[in-house]
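Aim 2, interim progress: modelling of the NAP-bound target.
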Amino acid sequence: MSAKIIDGKAIAAFIKENAAKDAAELTKKIGRHPCLAVIIVGEDPASRVYVNNKKKACEACGITSLEYALPEQTTEGELLDRIAALNGDDTVDGILCQLPLPKHINEEKVIEAIDPAKDVDGFHPVNVGKMVTGGDGLLPCTPAGLVEMLRYEGIDPEGKRCVVIGRSNIVGKPAAILMQRANATVTVCHSKTRNLKEILLQADIIVASVGKPHFLTADMVKPGAVVLDVGINRLPDKTLVGDAEFAEVSEVAGWITPVPGGVGPMTVAMLMKNTVAAACRRAAAR
Ligand code: NAP
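Predicted structure of the complex, ligand included:
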């Protein structure tokens, strides 16, 4: 058996096209483009790549992007002041503070400082709460992208057994909640889980968000299962790989997302979708 490769790049392109259409329509109505403010603190090379990708996507979607590149030694107070100013700026629709932040800055405090209506990453407790209760908030981009990918592939999670490996606040936990909202029966596994392989072999859908290369092997996957590989791992030879042992898992799985070109592009596309949605809601609330 050979798995169908889920083309995240192609689905992401489609989502960005739709975001661009919505952005153009809104621009006509409000007389300015939707606007995303991105804050980056310090010189982390991976963060710089992510921020550049987000800026490029904004350009392609007709979204104004503002970048605030702050030095590594920026204090927590200075960062909070910047966020307060952006919260108060009516021409800014989305605010994103690229994580991770330098160790001397409390990430939780920073996330909580962002106006929930502009929280396009969907990390603010108000949006997390709405996600849990099924409310209409802004959803976190990577997990929302997973559900969207399934929708585009015509895979309905309803009644399916979904196993999420990983329980981080940005991927594992929200992925589990959104899969449950899509009516899957969800199990969350983590580093203390016993009999992981046994649990995984029952899964119709696996979300791998561990951050370890070669973690998910073919013997852990039920034939025909969907494998959504969130992991982004750089090998010593600089090759980018996911958490799944791609060659062998794709022989067993029914569908699989590649790395690169799978979940990664979806995350950026969902950010564009969230930014336009935030702008539309703010315009409607006026
Ligand atoms: P994280 O915060 O390090 O979480 C990793 C999770 O994996 C933890 O919950 C951990 O369990 C669990 N884990 C570790 N070893 C395990 C084991 N042996 N068995 C079962 N579970 C185990 O990482 P993250 O932020 O969620 O990110 C995960 C991966 O996704 C990373 O590679 C990251 O780069 C990638 N990522 C990709 C995107 C994208 O757009 N594609 C976005 C975000 C993240 P404990 O909780 O018990 O420690």
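Residues 8-30 form the longest helix (23 residues). The domain at 31-115 is CATH 3.40.50.10860 (Rossmann fold).
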